[in-house]
Write the structure tokens for this entry.
Amino acid sequence: KMYFNSHPRITYNDVEVVNIFTKIIPIQRLLENAIAWELYDLEDGESPELLSYRLYGSVKYHWVLMMINNVIDINKDWPLSTQNFGDFVDSKYDEPNAIHHWVDEDGNVVDAEVEGSASIKNIEYEEDLQKKKALIKVLKPEYLDSFVEEFKSLL
């Protein structure tokens, strides 16, 4: 709630709405300070709200986690639960175990004819994307108040 409550309102088609196009660039100074945040590997099905509660004692700071990790669309930018992942892969691919692409020894995408290349299946490709999404930055609790105050001052 706080994230959108702080945004300016505009009139669109004669209706007052939140201006979702107002985007505050994450507070670079704080994010560049490695002392203020740490990497966190999300558990299966862990939502921003649940993690916010665990870290900060309230679900109302889920937007902080989403902001510092550039999560715009929770359905695309946040990792899926195991069950949802299976459903997603089944709906996206007719053959989840078919080859998606080939990689060389360094992980670079190459043609299948390249000597020493290895195949990556569709499901492996999607699993790798999910693993990358699951490793996020979390703001250490002692920096939460200053982050929120600075964010408010920028609006």
